[in-house]
TrEMBL record:
Pfam families: cNMP_binding, HTH_Crp_2. This is Crp/Fnr family transcriptional regulator. The lineage of its organism: Bacteria, Pseudomonadati, Pseudomonadota, Alphaproteobacteria, Hyphomicrobiales. CDD domains: CAP_ED (cd00038). Keywords: DNA-binding, Transcription, Transcription regulation. Residues 160-232 form the HTH crp-type domain. Residues 45-146 form the Cyclic nucleotide-binding domain. The keyword Transcription regulation applies. It comes from Rhizobium aouanii.
Length: 245
């Protein structure tokens, strides 16, 4: 994790090698960290926007909580394009299911913005899973919800126009960014490359749709920032009720 700033490392044995840098939905479905973990000693690390946090295929025994900023989780499509599967918001967890299953990471995690993560030992999660039936049920139900949500996104993407998919994605990301009290959700910090990878679609076609939305005074912004000006109009685009030309 070259470039990561270690603000503190309060737990011996959690170092740079814990999550390698070889290579970093709607997120209500992720496991919510319990208050018990917040009192545990952790390794606190900061990452710059675009920096790899953990690479796919790496076996880890730590999981992380996003303390500030957002993290993107991506994979590669068969045609070589990147697909951002989800954006992990503040308070979201990274690597929790892999730690429970003792499996390698299936996605690459990258800082979607300047962010701070708190890393915890995997045994804390496994001990709670083994001893608390309610927690096991929570893990299972949230994992199913996460899968269901991804399926719904894939189905919607297959049946919708690019403009509708883009509008839906902007609204979904608005909810993600709105989880941070410092952000109303109307301003999204995301590059056009990442936005195209989230849909997924070509950057050129995404740029064309963004330009139409700007011309229609529905959104504004540039340089990796998108500001929602007319949420109702954006919702109409997402539902296919309005097509901006």
């Amino acid at each position: 994790m070259d470039g990561a700033t270690h603000a503190s490392d309060r737990r011996a044995g959690i170092g740079k090698a814990a999550i390698s840098a070889n290579g970093g939905v709607h997120l209500n479905s992720r496991i919510v960290i319990d208050d018990e973990f917040l009192s545990c000693r952790s390794s606190v690390r900061r990452f710059r926007r675009g920096e790899i946090i953990a690479g796919a295929g790496v076996l880890v025994d730590t999981f992380a909580r996003v303390h500030s900023g957002v993290v993107s989780a991506s994979t590669m499509l068969p045609d070589g394009r990147e697909f951002i599967v989800e954006i992990v918001p503040k308070s979201g967890l990274i690597g929790e299911l892999e730690v429970l299953r003792r499996q390698t990471l299936s996605l690459e995690y990258r800082a979607g913005s300047a962010c701070e993560l708190h890393f915890f030992e995997g045994r804390l999660l496994r001990d709670m899973y083994a001893s608390d039936p309610c927690f096991r049920e929570k893990v299972f139900s949230r994992a199913l919800a996460r899968i269901s949500e991804l399926e719904l996104r894939i189905i919607a993407n297959a049946a919708s126009s690019l403009q509708s998919r883009l509008a839906s994605t902007l609204l979904r990301l608005s909810t993600v960014y709105g989880k941070d009290a410092a952000n109303s959700g109307d301003e999204l910090i995301i590059s056009q490359n990442d936005l195209a990878a989230t849909l997924p679609a070509s950057r050129e076609k995404v740029n064309q749709c963004l330009r139409r939305l700007r011309e229609g005074k529905i959104i504004d912004g540039g340089q990796g920032r998108i500001r929602i000006l007319n949420r109702k109009a954006l919702e109409a685009c997402a539902n296919g009720a309005v097509s901006v030309k």
